[in-house]
Structure to design on (454 residues):
């Protein structure tokens, strides 16, 4: 009996110690709960900050997130069944579901969306951003929802400023007894690429370097050669037009950075900066002359699915992670930050083990897809892209060829690598419910001709 009492006493001592780690001492103020600020850019390339590797860009404010937080260099949106890649991308992010399992824009249970989960955990939720090609149920689930599409060049020029103004107004009027979750998602730097004049003045097109992967024409038909985005530049692509488009794109990013800085400064002045988790992401990437392409409807690394992802704030270590992550991973990550339960069926994976400094493998590969005409998988070194409609395959060694210029798939010496990567692709398709065949019995021609007069 005495021995049992000693065991029981020890158990209670351990339990009391654990409780003491999480319950403040009598009279002590409880630790403030994390605020969350998520800035989600539209068509933002994975190298779209100076601190992410583009020395031409001027982005001093967003660079501070990279300098003090965790940068995920291998972040992606999974895929799209439509040309507007941003729609499924944003839906995956707000629901934690993969691309073929997400609801339609006006479908799904609002109680399972990110804002409702955080609201149930005590957060005041605020959204300002575009309404077109967005998950409507998701943004309407915010307690405060302001739609700013800012269509047209004149409206778009002031879009970043208006979005920041709306956030600053909310911060000044919000309920101070609750933590906040802000989702600011302006239609920037998406075309029309128009910023305030002072930001355009920073970039002389003649001084803008082209990508090493710039080409006048894409060498074959990838299944989506004349989608709207591809018509934003003439065929063949010219260095002069491409530099001009890059200069405009950079001006829009610098404008977004400047106005993000206004929000950061307001949080510092209010004393809330040190208690705010800040996330910067893009909904999809964008080609700007690489491989002769000008859209996000492709699976190259500097194409449609590779995105920036930077997270900074309390509890987040500084560094860079090469873990394979998807935007849908933000769903459980923010739930964990807010102390909200993650619903059953969530396919995203929390990034907190990495944010806290763990060397964790989230996934062994990244799988991406576009409509029924492109499928890809990559691991640490190798990247396979399959074009089922024309029975064409590309294999790239990303260690030696990061711009994907040397296709090794037709070299017999790499046949084994092709088979290994194809097996990984098939396994990823099985995991995510993708039954698209990887070849066609009657393939279409590979060659294509640009539309006359464009």
């Amino acid at each position: 009996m005495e021995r049992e009492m000693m065991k029981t006493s020890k158990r209670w001592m351990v339990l009391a110690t654990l409780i003491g780690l999480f319950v403040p001492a009598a009279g002590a103020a409880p630790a403030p709960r994390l605020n969350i600020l998520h800035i989600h850019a539209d068509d933002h390339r994975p190298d779209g900050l100076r601190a992410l590797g583009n020395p031409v860009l001027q982005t001093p404010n967003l660079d501070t997130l990279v300098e003090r937080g965790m940068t995920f260099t291998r972040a992606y949106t999974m895929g799209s069944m439509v040309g507007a890649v941003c729609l499924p991308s944003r839906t995956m992010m707000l629901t934690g579901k993969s691309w073929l399992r997400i609801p339609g824009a006006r479908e799904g249970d609002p109680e399972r969306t990110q804002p409702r989960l955080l609201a149930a955990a005590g957060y005041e939720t605020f959204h300002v951003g575009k309404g077109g090609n967005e998950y409507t149920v998701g943004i309407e689930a915010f307690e405060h929802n302001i739609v700013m599409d800012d269509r047209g060049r004149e409206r778009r020029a002031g879009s970043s400023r208006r979005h920041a103004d709306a956030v600053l107004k909310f911060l000044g009027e919000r309920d101070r007894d609750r933590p906040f979750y802000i989702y600011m998602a302006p239609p920037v730097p998406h075309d029309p690429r128009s910023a305030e004049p002072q930001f355009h003045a920073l970039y002389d097109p003649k001084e803008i370097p082209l990508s090493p992967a710039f080409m006048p024409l894409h060498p074959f038909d990838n299944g989506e050669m004349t989608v709207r985005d591809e018509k934003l530049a003439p065929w063949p692509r010219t260095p002069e037009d491409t530099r001009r488009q890059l200069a405009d794109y950079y001006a829009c990013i610098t404008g977004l950075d400047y106005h993000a800085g206004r929000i950061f400064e307001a949080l510092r002045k209010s004393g809330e900066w040190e208690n705010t988790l800040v996330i910067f992401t893009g909904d999809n990437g964008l080609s700007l002359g690489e491989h002769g392409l000008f859209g996000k409807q492709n699976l190259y690394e500097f194409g449609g699915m590779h995105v920036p992802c930077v997270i900074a704030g309390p509890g987040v270590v500084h560094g860079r992670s090469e873990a394979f992550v998807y935007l849908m991973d933000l769903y459980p990550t923010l739930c964990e930050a807010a102390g909200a339960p993650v619903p059953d069926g969530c396919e995203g994976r929390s990034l907190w083990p990495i944010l806290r400094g763990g060397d964790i493998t989230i996934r062994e590969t990244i799988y991406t897809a576009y409509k029924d005409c492109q499928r890809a998988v990559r691991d640490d070194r190798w990247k396979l892209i399959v074009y089922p409609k024309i029975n064409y395959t590309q294999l790239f060694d990303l260690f030696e060829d990061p711009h994907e210029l040397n296709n090794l798939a037709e070299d017999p010496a790499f046949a084994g690598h092709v088979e290994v990567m194809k097996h990984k692709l098939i396994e990823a398709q099985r995991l995510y419910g993708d039954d698209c065949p990887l070849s066609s019995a009657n393939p279409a021609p590979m060659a294509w001709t640009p539309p006359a007069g464009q």
